């Protein structure tokens, strides 16, 4: 596991959130995903006038990692500047499941770190192992 503490990862996510593109909701989110080697991949939410085309910060961070060839992530930290208890949406939880995230760190309303396992946030999830490899 990387040497970064939850607090330092949340600080990185908070800095990223400052750069989010959220002109419609004004709900800025930043995330930082960490791979097994300790490399960090930053993401921000990017809104779109066609709301369905919006990209969440968590997905943005995972895409940044995947673009470098990473296929497994150790943890992710998420911060909302304009809300409290910023948890990944259902779609992002499934994306995190695909990359085998071990820990999800969120900033609580009081500014402290809350760490969860993916199983806590997405119990009985569907993953690659559920697919028949012969099909």
Structural key phrases:
alpha+beta, five-stranded mixed beta sheet, Cytidine Deaminase, domain 2, about 140 residues, single chain, about 25% helix
Topology of helices and strands:
Layout (H helix, E strand, L loop, with lengths): L5 H12 L11 E7 L4 E5 L12 H10 L6 E8 L9 H9 L4 E5 L5 E5 H4 L14
Parallel strand pairs: 3-4
Antiparallel strand pairs: 1-2, 1-3, 4-5
Detailed description of the structure:
This protein has 135 residues and is of the alpha+beta class. It has one domain (6-130): Cytidine Deaminase, domain 2 (3-Layer(aba) Sandwich), CATH 3.40.140. Helices cover 26% and strands 22% of the residues. It has 4 helices and 5 strands, in the order αββαβαββα. It has a 5-stranded mixed β-sheet. It is globular and about 45 Å long. The termini are far apart. The model has no long low-confidence stretch (mean pLDDT 93).
The total number of structural domains is 1
Classified by CATH, the class is Alpha Beta
CATH architecture designation: 3-Layer(aba) Sandwich
- Uncertain segments: none
In short:
It is built from four helices and five strands.
